[in-house]
Structures are given as C-alpha cells and as structure tokens.
C-alpha cells in the first residue's frame, strides 16, 4: 500500500501502488473542459490540456490567472465544478487527494520540525505500512539523490532554505507518485539558490523521467525548467507550447510581453512570398523592409514584437541607416547596456527598450541614433 501525503490533506493509505511517474503511452494528466467556480466567480474556464508522462509542464501566468487552482485540482485539493480530470488514463475527478497517487511539493516545504530529515522523508512510507528499516533505506537513497547524503540526522531547522527544499523533494519522490506537483517551489529562496534548485529539479526530473507539473509566475524560471509551458490568463489558456514556441511565435501581444520582454511596434505587412511577409516599419524612413513569417495574417497594419537585444543602435542621423531616434535613458549593467530610445512611428512617439553588448563605447542620453532591427528576435504578433 502506498501512502500519499500532502500537508493539508493528512496522510492516507492508497490502493496498491501503480508504476512510478515514468513515461507511458497514456497522458499522465488530462483535463477535459474543467471549470472551477467559487460562488458566482469562475476562476478556471473550460480548461482542456494533456500532459505527457515523463515531461515537465509549467503552468505560468500572472497573479490570479488560475494556475494554483489548476494545480490543486490535479492534486485533488480542490474539486472541479464541472469537466473531467484523468490521471494515468483513470478518471479521478471525484477522487480525494489521497486517492490520486500524486505528491505535491509546497512553497513552505511543510517539514515536521521535530523529526530528523531522514525521518521526515521516511514518514510517508512507514505510515503506508512499509517496514521501518526499508523505509529508512529508501529515504536515505532519496536524500543522497538530492545531494543531502551525510545530513540525514539533522533537524530541518539545521538546514538552509535550499536544503530544506531538497528534503521536501526527496519526501515527495520517495513515494514514487504518478505525478509530482510543484507549487512555486523557489519562492522562499534567494536569487542564487533559486537558480541552483531549479537546475536540480530539472536534472532530477530528467534523470528519473518524472512527470512534473510546476507552477510559477516567473517566466524565466518557466523557460529554464520546462518541456512545455501552459500560459494562463484570466482562468483560460493564453498559449500552450514549448519554451521556444512561446518565445519565437507568441500567439498574442500578451504572450510576447509576458515571455521575455518585447517592444510592441506598429508596422505594415505589405505582401508575401511563401511563408515570409514583407514588413515595413516607419513608412516615412529609408529603413529596409523586413522579411518575417506572416503567420497567415492579412496585409495591412500589424504589430511587431521586437526583443530588446534585436535592436541595433548606431550614432547616425541619416534616415537611410534606420529609424531616427534619440536616447532617453542609458544604464550600464556590467555585461550589457540598457537604453530607452524614443522613435516616431505611425504618427506617435514610441519608446523602445534596447539591450546591447557594447559596454565599452556606450551611447549617452540625448544622442541622436539610427535604430535598426535584427530579423532574429522580431516577430509579427496576431492582434
Ligand atoms: N477559495 C477561494 N474562494 C474564492 N476565490 C478564490 C479561491 N481560491 C482562489 N480564488 C480566486 O480564483 C482566482 C485564481 O486564483 P489562483 O490562486 O488559482 O491564482 P494564481 O494564478 O495561482 O495566482 P497567485 O500567483 O497569486 O497564487 C483568483 O481570482 C482568486 O482570488
């Protein structure tokens, strides 16, 4: 019998253990038109997605978009108002948290303060009926796996935040759940530890082929750890794709701006050749047309998402060199410069945010510049 323990649901005994969270043909998690209402308020609208076993999928979005509610519905800590939730192909919609064979790692770690970390990790196994000795052995193995060999006898208070987070991960994986859930696991760590722990989580997930659903509001973290990202906004999916899809082919202005910074620049799509469209920026200038995927949009005004590092700045007032602009702000950041440059576009002044590697010959506030775009890092965004 396999126990599953979520700090808010207590410890319960489950059905005989199915296979651990390794890859299989069926989706590990499937949502079919799942809705969550709180009274008259709909927090999650008709959500449909599936998560392949052995992958790490992130639910990403701004505060209040419904990602935690979605994660908690996978865990069984919230019940869906309607729709169907499947885990490993089984309909678990009506099952409690204890009956779903999932494990959740919480922001707060939720370790037992009076127990050694070895006992913390072994706890769920012994409660589930495993002999103490075997449970301690399995716990020791998992602690070694997360890099904590030698510290088994310590209390949680004798560990750093990053180490406590690893204990929480060991405690979750020792149960060999079908799906491992992470709720903003790095939010209590400082910037340096965040990077380290996120790399550890990703490596562990890949080496054990774990199925992980991961919630964060931090787009960089999502890009760094995920096989796939489901971006949510207002309780709906705004885009579902690989990190590369989201960055290179954002489905909307919202995604372009949320995944990496983007300048939204008005432009004109004026013809096409195969998949590429001819795009003109700043009609009154000599800037050459860009050849960009037209994404099946009609000719006419379009928005471009221009990444800050795709902006090229040169000291020049010649309009044939690019769009005329003026530096409004400059900051030195060690390995790159950041600028804000005002350009006149589409009859209004647009402020562009640029990042350039040239720290040795920086531009100054007030400099007249010509602004060009490197095609890599520029994409047409659907309205
Ligand atoms: N128990 C509840 N009762 C009423 N409304 C709730 C409840 N739980 C969540 N909500 C609402 O549902 C919406 C989605 O909440 P959720 O916690 O899923 O968002 P989130 O994207 O995880 O945000 P955050 O990053 O701030 O945690 C929010 O508007 C929230 O106020």
From TrEMBL:
InterPro entries: AAA+_ATPase, ABC_SmlMolc_Importer, ABC_transporter-like_ATP-bd, ABC_transporter-like_CS, Mo/tungstate-bd_C_term_dom, P-loop_NTPase, Transp-assoc_OB_typ2. Residues 29-259 form the ABC transporter domain. GO terms for molecular function: ATP binding; ATP hydrolysis activity; transmembrane transporter activity. Keywords: ATP-binding, Nucleotide-binding, Transport. Pfam families: ABC_tran, TOBE_2. SMART domains: AAA. One of its GO terms (cellular component) is ATP-binding cassette (ABC) transporter complex. One of its GO terms (biological process) is quaternary ammonium group transport. This is ABC transporter ATP-binding protein. It comes from Azospirillum palustre. The lineage of its organism: Bacteria, Pseudomonadati, Pseudomonadota, Alphaproteobacteria, Rhodospirillales.
């Amino acid at each position: 019998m396999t126990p599953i323990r979520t700090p808010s649901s207590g410890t319960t005994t489950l059905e005989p253990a199915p296979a651990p969270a390794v890859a299989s043909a069926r989706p590990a998690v499937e949502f079919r038109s799942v809705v969550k209402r709180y009274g008259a308020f709909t927090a999650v609208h008709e959500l449909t997605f599936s998560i392949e076993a052995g992958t790490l999928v992130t639910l990403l979005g701004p505060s209040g978009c419904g990602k935690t509610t979605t994660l908690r519905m996978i865990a069984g800590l919230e019940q869906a108002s309607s729709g169907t939730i499947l885990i490993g192909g089984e309909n678990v919609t009506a099952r409690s948290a204890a009956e779903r064979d999932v494990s959740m790692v919480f922001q707060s770690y939720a370790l037992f303060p009076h127990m050694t970390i070895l006992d913390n990790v072994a706890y769920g196994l012994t409660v589930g009926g495993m002999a103490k000795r075997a449970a301690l052995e399995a716990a020791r193995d998992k602690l070694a796996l997360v890099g904590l060999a030698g510290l088994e006898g310590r209390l949680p208070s004798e560990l750093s935040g990053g180490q406590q987070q690893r204990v929480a991960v060991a405690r979750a994986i020792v149960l060999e759940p079908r799906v491992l859930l992470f709720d903003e696991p790095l939010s209590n760590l400082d910037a340096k530890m965040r990077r380290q722990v996120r790399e550890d989580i990703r490596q562990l997930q890949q080496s054990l082929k774990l199925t992980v659903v991961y919630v964060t509001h931090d787009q960089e973290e999502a890009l760094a750890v995920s096989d796939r990202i489901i971006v949510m906004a207002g309780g709906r999916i705004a885009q579902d794709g690989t990190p590369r899809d989201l960055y290179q082919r954002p489905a909307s202005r919202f995604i372009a701006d949320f995944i990496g910074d983007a300048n939204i620049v008005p432009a004109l799509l004026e013809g096409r050749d195969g998949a590429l469209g001819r795009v003109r920026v700043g009609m009154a200038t000599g800037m050459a047309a860009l050849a960009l995927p037209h994404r099946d949009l009609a000719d006419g005004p379009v928005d471009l998402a221009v990444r800050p590092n795709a902006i090229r700045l040169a000291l020049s007032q010649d309009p044939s060199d690019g769009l005329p602009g003026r530096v409004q702000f400059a900051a030195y950041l060690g390995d790159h410069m950041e600028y804000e440059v005002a350009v006149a576009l589409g009859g209004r002044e647009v402020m562009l945010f640029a990042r350039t590697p040239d720290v040795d010959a920086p531009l100054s506030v007030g400099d007249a510049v010509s602004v060009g775009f490197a095609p890599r890092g520029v994409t047409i965004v659907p309205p």
